[in-house]
Design brief:
The complex is a heterodimer of chains A (about 220) and B (about 220). Chain A has about 220 residues and is an alpha/beta fold. Chain A contains 9 helices and 7 strands. Chain A has a single domain, classed as P-loop containing nucleotide triphosphate hydrolases (Rossmann fold). Chain A has helices at about 40-50, 65-75, 90-100, 100-115, 155, 160-165, 175-180, 180-195, 210-225; strands spanning about 25-30, 55-60, 85, 120-125, 140-145, 165-170, 200. In chain A, strands 3-2-4-1-5-6-7 form a 7-stranded parallel sheet, sandwiched between helices. In chain A, helix 2 links the parallel strand 2 and strand 3 (about 85). Chain A starts with about 25 loop residues before the first strand and ends with a helix. The relative contact order of chain A is 0.18. Chain B has one domain (about 5-10, about 20-215): Orthogonal Bundle (Urease accessory protein UreF). With about 220 residues, chain B is mostly helical. The longest helix of chain B has 27 residues, at about 35-65. The radius of gyration of chain B is 16 Å and the shape is globular. Classes of the chains: A alpha/beta (about 220), B mainly alpha (about 220). The interface of A and B includes residues 64 and 87 of A. Chain A: It is found in: Cytoplasm. Chain A: Facilitates the functional incorporation of the urease nickel metallocenter. This process requires GTP hydrolysis, probably effectuated by UreG. Chain A: InterPro entries: CobW/HypB/UreG_nucleotide-bd (IPR003495), P-loop_NTPase (IPR027417), UreG (IPR004400). Chain A: This is Urease accessory protein UreG. Chain A: Belongs to the SIMIBI class G3E GTPase family. UreG subfamily.
Chain lengths: ~220, ~220
């Protein structure tokens, strides 16, 4: 829906692929998943991997602090004006799914203030297995789980695991220490997700985010065609 | 017009950003002024008769066609706390997005052009009600209800208050909401005839002080 065909003024509905000036807006990718699974670490690694080739920015959704934004600032993965924190009123899933207005304003303000941007990463506050992003907010979503959270999570499924455009199983380096069976996790994920991709990663290794970065580049290539 | 549009606009699930704001309840809880349902009722009654009355009058005046720039300036003048002015504009911008998607109208587009970073929420609420075909009384009711429903919901989360008790508070405040909405509409009609100085300027000093205190916290659940 593009309301500006009949009304003037800035676009009201921001799934629109174009900005009010007619330029194509940045690709928006959401990262969700349980608390502590490595969403912020993955965002930081993606920024380091992609910042020299793309113009990018990050929106964080902390539940009750600004710690995720503060972490990204401390790690200096991007200049501070490219990182915005949204406050979610104790309901991180509401801010990315049911009432996306604060996040939409954050992504639009970033494009206005530091744009043009190729890519905006929207990181959810740590949540439960049912948290997914609205299609009105992001174009694609990554669900991040980790091996230490229990190797039965792919089997349990839920909207995040089954429907995310990319499932990332993080901290594979910990698998031997927590008794997680990566083969079983891969088989369960395949059963839940059919042809949707799954990446197993450890950010402890050199270029550990390479597979996810490659997936992001593919999405961006498809977006900018 | 459709009266049912009021239900859509007043629904707590209307996606206009309210879920992230406590209406001052988080600061009041931390300060020990809200500890149970009885205190919540006192807090909500105070907010209804101050912030709720002013918001209701602003919203009703917007429905009646009072100039939105004047209304926005009047809202600024009635909101001493800079943090609350910022929150009101942020919520206004979020409400405008939802309203334009729900009830497309050139008046709402013009408001978005004029206030790209947001007008005060009650002013936007009034124009949204107007775009939805609602009247000044509907807008005033909506503002009055929002002035207490936000803190009640937030307190359920902040204190793990029994949600039935919190809803009981709202139900007991219903007659007071009727009276505040009536006064708000009467004031809005005077403002339409005499100018925005006729709007009420009731204010709860602790709400303003608490908002400034709250805005400085490094760790909090709600944006305001």
């Amino acid at each position: 829906m593009h309301l500006d065909h009949t009304h003037s003024g800035p676009a009201a509905v921001s799934a629109d692929a174009h900005r009010p000036d007619g330029a194509r807006r940045a690709l928006r990718i959401g990262l969700g998943g349980p608390v502590g699974s490595g969403k912020t670490a993955t965002v930081a690694a993606l920024c380091r991997a992609l910042r020299d080739e793309l113009s990018l920015a990050v929106v964080t959704n902390d539940i009750y602090t600004r710690e995720d934004a503060a972490f990204l600032l401390r790690e200096a993965v991007l200049p501070p004006e490219r990182i915005t924190a949204v406050e979610t009123g104790a309901c991180p899933h509401t801010a990315i799914r049911d009432d996306i207005s604060a996040n939409l304003e954050a992504v639009e303000d970033l494009e206005d203030e530091v744009g043009p941007l190729d890519l905006i990463l929207v990181e959810s506050g740590g949540d439960n297995l049912t948290a997914t992003f609205s299609k009105g907010l992001v174009d694609a979503q990554i669900f991040v789980i980790d091996v230490a959270g229990g190797d039965d999570i792919p089997r349990k499924g839920g909207p995040g695991v089954t429907t995310a455009d990319l499932l990332v199983v993080n901290k594979t380096d910990l698998a031997p220490y927590v008794g997680s069976d990566l083969t079983r996790m891969a088989a369960d994920a395949k059963a839940q997700r059919a042809e949707l991709p799954v990446v197993f990663q450890s950010l402890r290794t050199e270029d550990g985010v390479a597979d996810v970065a490659a997936w992001v580049r593919e999405r961006l290539a498809a977006w900018t065609v | 017009m459709s009266r049912a549009a009021l239900l859509v606009l007043a629904d707590g699930r209307f996606p206009a950003g309210g879920h992230a704001h406590s209406g001052g309840a988080e600061a009041a809880v931390r300060a020990g002024r809200i500890t149970d349902a009885a205190h919540l009722e006192d807090f909500c009654r105070g907010r209804l008769h101050t912030a709720g009355l002013v918001a209701g009058a602003l919203a009703a005046a917007a429905v009646l066609g009072v100039d939105v720039r004047e209304l926005d300036a009047a809202a600024d003048a009635r909101t001493p706390s800079p943090a609350l002015r910022t929150a009101a504009r942020r919520l206004g911008r979020q409400l405008l997005r939802a309203a334009r998607a729900s009830w497309p109208a050139s008046e709402l587009d013009a408001l978005a052009r004029e206030f790209p970073k947001g007008a005060h929420q009650p002013v936007v609420l009034g124009l949204a009600a107007r775009a939805a075909g609602l009247g000044p009384d509907d807008a005033a009711y909506c503002a009055a209800y929002e002035s207490v429903s936000g803190p009640a919901t937030a307190t359920v989360r902040l204190l793990s208050l029994d949600p039935f008790d919190a809803t009981g508070v709202l139900a007991r405040l219903a007659p007071a909401m009727d009276s505040v909405a009536d006064r708000a509409v009467a004031a809005a009609r005077r403002a339409a005839a005499e100018g925005v100085d006729a709007l009420p300027a009731a204010s709860g000093p602790l709400l303003e002080v608490g908002a400034e205190w709250h805005a400085a916290w490094p760790v909090r659940l709600f944006a305001s």
